[in-house]
Design goal:
Elements: H1 2-8, E1 12-16, H2 23-34, E2 38-42, E3 54-57, H3 80-96, E4 100-103, H4 105-113, E5 118-119, H5 122-125, H6 135-140, E6 143-147, H7 152-157, E7 161-164, E8 171-172, E9 180-184, E10 190-194, E11 201-204, H8 215-229
Length: 230
């Protein structure tokens, strides 16, 4: 009877909030609710000891380059409060083995928080990474990623290659020692990272919240929520 009760429990999923609530945040919120979690937005003002079962770090403004010893962009408005909040929550998640899903900026922050670095502008590093960046491209443009064997992402998506969307300007440069790369584009851009010795610790550069019309991308959320449930 106790096991059945646990399986019915709705895990509380904290979602770090950008200063301006963009559509990606609301789609993540919706996905967590749709697939069996109880979403809770996390702001810098919220107490760090809140009893969450899982953590989502989503998209938004660039991670401040000073966190990985690079110069900031001129005339760019960074969200330092959010950076500090996410580092604090990720630190707690690392210490307490709380399941983590990072999306776009969230994946980058997971890497930075663990000691890795980022490319400030992916198009300046990879010649073929000048992706279209208008609204229709965000909706319809797709690119291929190659997924490594024996990884969490491979177990979830159950494919060697798949097509994903592209909404990012930055990307992972040096991977943190504690993490591994589980997917890349053919040109070399990192598209997913994870940690083996964690209950669930997955960061994806693409936006699965806008791809849930396909079952494989729904499984990213259902697998994460399942890990948070126990």
């Amino acid at each position: 009877m106790q096991e059945k009760t646990l399986k019915k429990k709705k895990p509380l999923i904290g979602i770090t909030k950008p200063k301006n609530l963009i559509s990606a945040y609301w789609m993540i919120y919706f996905c967590i609710w749709l697939f069996g979690g109880e979403p809770k937005g996390l702001s810098p003002e919220d107490p760090l000891d809140m009893d969450i079962d899982g953590l989502v770090v989503g998209g938004g403004t660039d991670v401040f380059p000073g966190l990985f010893q690079k110069d900031p962009k001129q005339n760019y408005l960074y969200d330092h409060d959010r950076d500090e909040m996410e580092i604090a929550w990720l630190t707690r998640a690392n210490n307490e083995n709380i399941p983590v899903l990072g999306i776009c900026r969230g994946s980058q922050m997971m890497n930075v928080m663990n000691g890795g670095t980022l490319h400030i502008d992916v198009s300046e590093v990879y010649e073929e990474a000048k992706y279209p960046n208008h609204l229709l491209a965000y909706i319809f443009y797709r690119k291929r990623i190659d997924i490594r064997e024996n990884t969490l992402l491979k177990d979830i998506l159950d494919c060697e290659h798949c097509k994903v969307n592209s909404m990012h300007k930055q990307s992972i440069e040096i991977i943190a020692d504690k993490l591994l790369v589980s997917a890349k584009e053919p040109i070399g851009v990192v598209q997913a990272i994870e940690k083996r010795d964690h209950k669930f610790y997955l960061g994806v550069q693409f936006h699965p919240e806008f791809l849930i019309y396909r079952s494989k991308f729904r499984r990213i959320f259902t697998s994460f929520i399942a890990a948070a449930r126990f």
